[in-house]
Amino acid sequence: MPNFNGIVITNSGKVLLAKAQQGKTLSFSKMQLGSANDITNPTEKTAVTSPFLTTKIRNVNLTTDGSARISTFISNENLTQSYVWREIGLFAVDPDTQQEVLYAYKCAGENGETIPAGGGADVIEKIFDIVIKVNNASSITAVIDESTVLLSREEIVQELDDCEDEENKVPSAKLFYEKIMEKLDITGGTIDGKLNVLRGITANITGDVTGNCSGSSGSCTGNANSANSCSGNAGSATKLQNSRNINGTSFNGTGDITTSKWGTARKIDLNGAISGSVNMDGSKDVTINTTLNNFKLLEGTVYIDTSESRKTIEINYPDGFTQNNCVVLSFGVKIDTLDMFYELLPSAEFKKEIYLGRKINLGLLNMNERSVRYKIVLMKIS
Predict the structure, then answer these.
(1) 90 has which bridge partners?
(2) Does position 294 have pLDDT exceeding 80, yes or no?
(3) Domain range annotation of the chain
(4) Fold of 295-380
(5) Distance of alpha carbon 224 from alpha carbon 210, whole angstroms
């Protein structure tokens, strides 16, 4: 906590204090936190040099020595960045002009306190008091923030002291409860505005809850009817307020769905004896075009003239195939004039043979003066 001892009433504040001592109302309106390291001429200040947070007044209590204890509530909930808290300014309303003026000011200099940005792990919530002389001012008031209901430890202890059971001389839980309810002003009524509970709340609430309810943990069991928003679990929710699309299929929470496609498309690859690939997202059937990696079909045509009773055709191996890694799975020839359909007639007149050497050797006998078409199927074995 910065050292704000010796807070100074500004020249503008002294004018207001003089008016209050003449019978006019001294009304405190707000406090302002700043980050500037400015310790020069505090009495001449008319504004906080580098303000980053404005807070409302919780209450004002007068003391017996002519001072007033003015209280505010500080929270980093709405801060978007961290600041070093060095300045404090107390503002009051001029009873004649109704304008706010800087009544008192103090800069702690290098003795500041870092207040982190809101929304993170470090939650800052504290009650801060300023004690300042008001001397013989006849009427002291404040613009009280009624949207924030807070009780400090000291206030609770004081209420507990006031609830002593006269018969047993011990604090009465019933009286204490009634005092606290009176302080919160919710007995038989409602809370209109923001209720800040620093340590959480455990209670049974009967009736309607109107507004927003949020928290970092826990749940709400029961029905939330016509709620503006609810962060947590709604025990009896059966339908989403707004439908959502899941992978192209509408979903409102009332039943199970089957999506029309996958959230992310996938590629299917085939490798090995058969290769091929296809992209698919589940929305339709697909066909994979494949290739036989370990098989190869060779085909061609050769003409045998009258001078050749035996014809040997040398054929190159296809890529990846050699004499040592493949075998002939099948082969056949077709003689155009006889339409043999790659098969020999049941006669010894025509013969064919094949063997693997430096090249593929296809031998044809007694097929002179004809065009011969051939097909050979190779298969890899290693």
Answers:
(1) 31, 104
(2) yes
(3) 8-145, 254-293, 295-380
(4) Immunoglobulin-like (2.60.40)
(5) 9
